[in-house]
Amino acid sequence: MYVSVRDRPAGPDEAPGRRSRRVATTVVLLGVVSLLTDVSSEMVSAVLPLYLTAEIGIGLLAYGFVDGVYQGVSAFVRILGGVAGDRGRRPKWVAALGYGISAVSRPLMLAANGMAAVTAVVTADRLGKGLRTAPRDALIADASPPGALGRSFGVHRALDTLGAAIGPIAAFALLAALPRAYDAVFVVSFAVALVGLAVLVLFVPDRRVGAGTARPAVREVLRAAAGPRLRRTLLAAGLLGVLTVGDGFLYLSLQHRDDFAAMLFPLLYVGTNVAYLALAVPLGRLADRIGRARMLVAGHVALLLAYLCAAGSAGGPVWTVHTLVLLGTFYAASDGVLAALVSRLVPAHAKGTGIAAAQTVVVLARFASSVAFGALWVAAGRQPALLGFAVALALAIPAAGWLLRRVEEER
């Protein structure tokens, strides 16, 4: 892998089946922006479950609602972000607005002392994420050769995940030095988010995406992003997403099972992110070779195994590490891979909207999953809830594979 000296759109000679070793400067710069932003956001995410349940004192069902909001509220603006980026053909500035909203939400957490206030702050943060994600991914797809999309998204997600690994370590260090000083975590998080926003505004090229000179109409963009191949992909992504338990619940499950996970709770996020970081580029490259749809399905097999490890009665470091590695493998095989898959199923002038549609389906499905899993845990207990989701996911994986069969071969 190397970084190109300058960006350029993929040429016609760079066919989808041809694998280039080029990773564009835009991809790397956006990766740096995501790295810094994820240091900021994961500092908050790493302490949020304990902050809400231990410091503020909300129950598991209420936490399930907040976690669902965290997972799903961004769905309300993802399509808006995708369409705005596609229509204006300047997705950088739509992404910058989203990053800015998320940055501003960090210090607001200092004044959030109740359920309603915390939910409002989390909502603002996730709305910012929803607005920025599709335009950013459209920039990555536009700057990358078609045959190297998996690699490019893998490089971006690796940098993104490096930040996600650093964030919990920073939060853990702050809380170790200043016990229960959650306000220090929120202030440092805000400062890092501002640096990430500055990198985006000052250094990321303002690429004009899509072909031609005319701005496409909203109806044209939406119609282009609603082809049959994309519809089958969205159905498969939604089916798998509704059975994807939020990370916070898996970590709380590990904490409830044994003292090892409870002692090092913020560092559980680090374990997942280290595995994600190590595997994002290799699995992205493998997806380019074997097919991104196949890799997406395989990633959910890793998630199924993570459920089984977390549900087991045996505790201790070994099973905790197995769970975190499998969860990181799932993200490496699904997050960037889904965006890379979708970007090849829609026309160039609707890439952002197509990616946003897939992301919207996933986050809405995960919102439903979080609420359902929280209710099931309260009603039946930790282990039955995890095993129930594992059985359902085992049935959904072959169904999703059937929906995605030959989706990349059709033209």
Automatic annotation (TrEMBL):
Keywords: Membrane, Transmembrane, Transmembrane helix. It comes from the Bacteria. Residues 26-408 form the Major facilitator superfamily (MFS) profile domain. SUPFAM superfamilies: MFS general substrate transporter (SSF103473). The chain crosses the membrane at residues 27-52, 58-80, 158-178, 184-205, 233-254, 260-283, 295-315, 321-342, 354-379, 385-404. Pfam families: MFS_1. The keyword Transmembrane applies. InterPro entries: MFS (IPR011701), MFS_dom (IPR020846), MFS_trans_sf (IPR036259). The keyword Membrane applies. It is found in: Cell membrane. It is a multi-pass membrane protein. PROSITE patterns: MFS. CDD domains: MFS_MJ1317_like. This is MFS transporter.
